[in-house]
Amino acid sequence: MIYGFDVISDLNLTPNDEFNWEGKPTSLFCIVAGNITTDITVLHKTLKHLSGLYHGVFFIDGTLENQGIVDRDTRSNEIAKLCSSFRNVIYLHNNVVVVDGIALLGLNGWSNKKIENSILDDFHLKCFRYDDIAYLEKTLEKLQLHVDVKKVVIISSCVPLRELYFGENDVNDEDIFPGYVLHKDTEHKVTKWIYGTYDKFVDTKINNINYVNNAKYDVEPYFAKRIEITL
Question: In what order do the strands lie in the sheet with 209-213?
């Protein structure tokens, strides 16, 4: 059985932008790897639009959705409430979804991009990053024993591995990347890692895991990247 998912991220929409996805879906499901907008009204409008075109929309927040953040839990609760207003939009923060044996495991991951208009300093943001990585590690370990989960797809707003910058980004050598957790994938269930926050298209394999980035940024025309998972 083949399952398809459309991958998009980094739409970077403002209140003045028109976003029309009519005629572009290629799958029943859509994965949105963060950075739709800084504007909560635009976020609501965009997710509502996508929810009318897909059977299911799986969303994780990125840097843009956290502009001006004061408290992490408060912002996450706001986004969760917004997503819950649609019957088929799933917010992946602290929420694993299993679709016919495929587990979708999401995290923000808190990339090294600056959070604008926030009172939080780099120390707080690094703590958020480490918390997300710890959650990912613990959850991935549990999924190894889950008999109904045959394959795992990880979705992060941040870049998961240093290698996926391809030498183009000056990354702090002290940074811990979410890909660190893959040593917990003892049953080799992780088949794909979908991510955002990188301005070039990526579809590559590292150690038998397919890493896919389909960030929009300024790309026109922009289309979904379809991924397929066979069970």
Answer: 97-99, 102-107, 151-156, 190-195, 209-213, 202-206
> Mean pLDDT across the chain, nearest whole number?
93
Three-state secondary-structure class, residue 102: strand
3-state secondary structure of 2: strand
- CA 103 to CA 100: how far, in whole Å? 8
Question: Among 122, 47, 130, 120, which residue's Cα sits nearest to residue 90?
Answer: 47
Number of compact structural domains in the chain: 1
Q: What is the CATH number of the domain that holds 16?
A: 3.60.21.10
DSSP state of 37: B
In tens, the pLDDT along 87-119 reads 999 999 999 999 999 999 999 999 766 666 666
Range of the domain at 197: 2-230
Is residue 154 a contact partner of residue 102, using CB atoms and an 8 Å limit? no
